[in-house]
Amino acid sequence: MYDRFQAGRKRLDSKSTQLSKILIKKLTFQTLFRTVLVVVTATLLCFFSMGLTWAAESSVVSPEKPAEYMIYQYPGVALLIRIDAVEMEFESRVYGAERALIKASRIPLRRIGPVYQFIEAIDTARQLIVEVIPAQTTDRSQISMELIQLPQNERNSSMQSDAFRLFSRAVDSTSANDSTTWAMKIYALQSAANVFEELGWEELRLWSGYYAAHLIFHKLHDEHSAIELARKVQVAAAKAGFAVIELAALQLEGAALLNAGTLKPGPSGEKRYRKIHRILGQASALADELGLQSERGLALFNDGIAWEQQEDLTQALIQYKRALEIANVADNDELANEIRNKAAFAYEAQGSVSGAIEMLDQIGNELTDEVAR
Fold this sequence. Notes:
Blueprint (H helix, E strand, L loop, with lengths): L1 H24 L21 H4 L1 E4 L11 E7 L3 E9 L4 E6 L5 E5 L9 E5 L6 E9 L8 E9 L5 H14 L8 H21 L2 H17 L4 H18 L2 H17 L7 H24 L2 H17 L3 H17 L3 H18 L2 H20 L1
Antiparallel strand pairs: 1-8, 2-7, 3-6, 3-8, 4-5, 4-7
Helix pairs in contact: 1-12, 3-4, 4-5, 5-6, 5-7, 6-7, 7-8, 7-9, 8-9, 9-10, 9-11, 10-11, 11-12
């Protein structure tokens, strides 16, 4: 049976090499058709009520077929584009005449939270096209876009523009992967948070702080600084009632604690693991309340990893099973296969070759189904 397990893994590796691109590219979530938008003049005096918002229609988009929006920019007016796509990573691009790229924005590994693009004021009117390009599959995700005009002659417009300009620059797409580039982006987000605090915009301050912690963890790989900042954001978000920010911060803190390394046996190690289980338990419960099932599945999956680090394979597999059921309900094939792969190794370590084979077979079947679709 063990030979069958090894043969199954070799077949899976070969199949994954051929089909991984297809798995990433085939997406099944809601989006918008191209829409022509004429925007009325608005100011930020009533910031959250003035923007025009559009949610996704029931059609499928992909990296090859992005969601498109056509918008209009008046002379002397800067534009603020707010895009949110729940439980999926994406890149947003803004094009001008003759498809000239004006701005591209992306936060690597971001799953929840809005992205803001600031378009500088111009002297002449123009039409722009906004493209939202998804990078992963999730049936329950929805794309929404809000457009706000920032007249440059309004009171406080300079401070408002400065804050969004800092945020927008920080999330500009880049192919650079050096620490200096990411440190500058983190500094811009922290500076934006300070300006938002002066303006009294707590939600934007917290999102800026969260994204700074996100990049500190994922790009500077400084787990301890990320944990500290994520914890501050989580506490403030819970106090202010911003549940989505609270969830994002809990997930980040849990992931950073896991990534900080396997803890040594003993009282201090047990205390840290109890903290990890508590944080991920909070994240799972909050994600369930918010209806974010992929986030719930991810929290349970990470909790399983924590149990596996503690060498409690029975409890780890219980959490993997719960996480897999939720990922399947959410139609999140990428997360489901990641869970199956981890569970296969846990079954093997436990001595259950049949369990490992079952997980590998499910991955292989899922990849085969993707080709068929």
